[in-house]
Amino acid sequence: MIEFRNISKEFKTEAQTNLALDRVSLKVNQREIYGIIGHSGAGKSTLIRVANLLEKPTAGEVFFNGEALTKLTAEELRKKRQDMGMIFQGFHLLKTATVYENIALPLKLVGLNALEIKKRVHQYLSVVGLLEKEQAYPSQLSGGQKQRVAIARALSHRPKVLLCDEATSALDPETTEAILELLNQINRDFGITILLITHEMSVIQRICDRVAVMEAGKVVEEGSLLQVISSPKHPTTQKFINSQFPSGAENLIENSLHEGHLIVELSFVGNVADKPVLAEVAKKFDVYPNILSGNMVPLKKDHYGKLLVELQGNQMETKKCLRYLKEKGIRTEILKGVGSHEAVS
Ligand SMILES: Nc1ncnc2c1ncn2[C@@H]1O[C@H](COP(=O)(O)OP(=O)(O)OP(=O)(O)O)[C@@H](O)[C@H]1O
């Protein structure tokens, strides 16, 4: 649906040239929620602005439904942009206009009649749950409510894609959760494709189907959420994922390691409570698993969890146990072993 093909973007100032995007290629499929994550300066904002050519790439091409956007005339591009709604961290509402007017004015600009405008304003205020606020001014709304108005405004043009530029970064965790759920619902109910950028892994985990990780203008890792989260390859991806889990494992490891034992990190998708694998392990093998710490984070359709476990047993039995866990789809990483277990992997 959206394809970035070899996109580069240079910003030239008198003093220097900034390469904000360095040969970025990505495909966003219809109806998916695609998240781009990266630290400040990675190039996320520049890339999302290239999607609707608010930013023109220095090199490369961006396609929307197979059409090369840079080849369009100004008029064709203006029309095409109506298929791409956008929401921002700072909401971008007109302060001196009511909620109703904030949504109605852009519809008037594209030539809709008063009756149709009224119908759409009410329809989409109802979708975002703010019908009763239509005569309020933005200053009378909370951050979450302002973002809902911005979402209603974007939806009122009946776009095929919603571009979300750090849409929840200015909101508290509870409001963030509500806005993410609303985006999920919009994706599900209207089939609208969503491309979002964020610096928060929790946002990616909560709603995205696929994810790209950016650093210094490049995409360093890309794939389905489950793929990326369960076997992150790039150190930046690993750091983003680890940020979701409490630290302090080093202390636990130091304090609990006994001669001949292994400390293993188990990562899994799904609820381990449904699959009592550690109890099975204890039964099947002559190994005693001792849980040191554990944490679960919710994903769009599932949970992702990590357990830090001390395995007590001889080398042969521990090896069999690790093989068994792998067969069950659990990723195992030996963090520390002593004595004869140093060689087990
Ligand atoms: N208009 C501009 N002029 C010059 N340099 C720019 C301009 N816009 C962005 N840059 C530079 O391009 C690089 C990428 O910036 P960009 O805003 O896309 O990153 P980002 O990942 O969105 O960061 P943030 O989360 O802080 O917004 C940065 O080095 C930035 O300084």
TrEMBL record:
Q: Which residues form the ABC transporter domain?
A: 2-241
Q: Which CDD domains match?
A: ABC_MetN_methionine_transporter
Q: Name one GO cellular component term.
A: plasma membrane
Q: Does the keyword Ligase apply?
A: no
The record's annotation in InterPro entries points to: AAA+_ATPase, ABC_transporter-like_ATP-bd, ABC_transporter-like_CS, ACT-like_dom_sf, MetN_ABC, MetN_ABC_transporter-like, NIL_domain, P-loop_NTPase
Among the record's GO biological process terms, what is one?
Answer: amino acid transport
Q: Which UniProt keywords apply?
A: Amino-acid transport, ATP-binding, Cell membrane, Membrane, Nucleotide-binding, Translocase, Transport
| Highest taxon above the source species | Bacteria
> Molecular function terms in GO for this entry?
ATP binding; ATP hydrolysis activity
What family does the entry list?
Belongs to the ABC transporter superfamily.
What PANTHER family does the database record attribute to this sequence?
AMINO ACID IMPORT ATP-BINDING PROTEIN (PTHR43166), METHIONINE IMPORT ATP-BINDING PROTEIN METN (PTHR43166:SF30)
Q: What is this protein called?
A: D-methionine transport system ATP-binding protein
Natural source organism: Tindallia magadiensis
